Amino acid sequence: MIPEDLRYTAEHEWVAVDGSGNVRVGITQFAQDALGDIVYVQLPEVGAEVVAGDSMGEVESTKSVSEIYAPLSGTVSARNDQLADAPESINTDPYGSGWLVELTPADPAAVDALLTADAYRGLTES
User: Distance between CA 117 and CA 39 in Å, rounded?
Assistant: First the structure.
């Protein structure tokens, strides 16, 4: 399941542009499936500055701990605090209630450099 209206990273994060200038970020169906049952999520604080490609948190599953990488440079404008009590939302609804953070990108045009759904599909099916 790779929604066509999102952008993606090679590290299996998705980015949704909401029209307000902010973007919503999560991990893909492919990533959550590989991780298994997610039991804990560590997210950056609202107001934190993140740099594209750098770690901005962790997802812990029954199998392993994985880094969450910032898909874009910018400022964290919101985070999904509901994941503290329901981290399994990432498994059940990775593109909906399992979102991680919202960012205000330093360069909104940087979204265009991320992978399209077709490019991400090629990455995960190879």
Answer: 28
